Amino acid sequence: MVQVASQPETLVARMASLADPTRLRLLKLLSANELGVVDLCEVLQMPQSTVSRHLKLLTDQGWTTSRRQGTTNLYEMPADDLDESARRLWELARDQTGDWATLKQDALRLKQRLREHRRDPEAFFADAAEQWDSLRDQLYGRSFTGAALAALLPGDWVVADLGCGTGHTAAQLAPLVAQVIAVDSSSAMLKAARKRLQGVDNVELRRGTLEELPIDNDTCDAALALIVLSYIDRPGDAMREMARVLKPGGRAVIVDLLIHDREDFRRQMDQRHMGFDPRNMVDQLESVGLTDAVCRTIPPESEAKGPALLLARAIKPTQ
Question: What is 51-102 written as a DSSP string?
């Protein structure tokens, strides 16, 4: 709160500061808006030197406050924070100038100025719309969207990362949830994951197959299988195991290859299956007791060389 001692000289100084028409106009504008010097110059139609001089006096007298935003000082009059005597003086000045035509002209020019401010970003995005995605990627990268979506995960969840490989996904999940249970059948993959996850104390690495998970019943809030089912002989058994380890209400999420005809790719990657049909994926999830199953294709990224992917999710019933 702005506090100034109640002395006769203070009262006289305050009355003198309100006796100038330009300062009255400034206070009227700043009582309802936070504005920069350029805006005030445009509205009052005065040079910057004049406006700045009056603003300095008003700030010295405690009528206005300012803050820095980039290279601009923004000013306002915090009427509610004035002491009692200053507030009474301002209320008197405001009431006595209510019909002043100059203030009405100022209000119209300010309205137009604020409207122009609103149009500036609209004009920018109108010009940038077609290139916005690539521009945003160039300026800010791509990871922030995934980080924001991942932050929607409840912090008390236990998540199973099935076919965890080198621990890439587990490392991303660990800061967001209470525990990650990471399972893989390959000792080499688990060794790499252990190295990556050094110092991460809420990830537990377990060796086991997806068809016989080393996880107790009703343990996990979510179970992920990312590019894993293509590598195992019995994907249906893996889905049944996912359903078993989920708590009631838990979610199963699968990302894998969309059905394709690239036999050379399958052999190169030593996969057991040529991808999956979305409709069959939904049927299999429902056949193991999961509900609300949906499956959609994921648009391939331009730099991706492999087959397109699908994403499926389902929920374990609460009863």
Answer: HHHHHHHHHHTTS-EEEEETTEEEEE--GGGS-HHHHHHHHHHHHHTTT-HH
Q: Which residue has the tokens 């209510």?
A: 98
Q: What is the tens place of the pLDDT at every residue in 288-304?
A: 999 999 999 987 777 77
Q: Strand, coil or helix: what is 40?
A: helix
Identify the pLDDT of residue 300: 76
Q: Which of 254, 277, 273 is nearest to 262 (CA)?
A: 273
Residue 308 CB burial class (10 angstroms; 0-12, 13-18, ≥19): middle
User: Where exactly are the structural domains of the chain?
Assistant: 8-130, 144-315
As to burial, measured by CB atoms within 10 angstroms (0-12 exposed, 13-18 middle, 19+ buried), residue 202 is middle
Burial of 188 (0-12, 13-18, 19+ CB in 10 A): exposed
| Same CATH fold assignment for domains 8-130 and 144-315 | no
CATH of range 144-315; options 2.60.40.10, 3.20.20.80, 3.20.20.70, 3.40.50.150: 3.40.50.150
> How large a percentage of the chain has pLDDT more than 70?
91
Residue 61 to residue 175: CA distance in whole angstroms: 51
DSSP 3-state assignment of 303? coil
Q: Could you tell me which residues come within 8 angstroms of residue 239 by beta carbon, excluding any fewer than 6 positions away?
A: 229, 252, 254, 284, 285, 288, 290
Question: Is there a contact between 221 and 159 (Cβ–Cβ < 8 Å)?
Answer: yes
Q: Please tell me the distance from the alpha carbon of residue 59 to that of residue 2, in angstroms, as a whole number.
A: 10
State the CATH architecture for 8-130: Orthogonal Bundle (1.10)
| Residue 191 tokens, joined | 């060794």
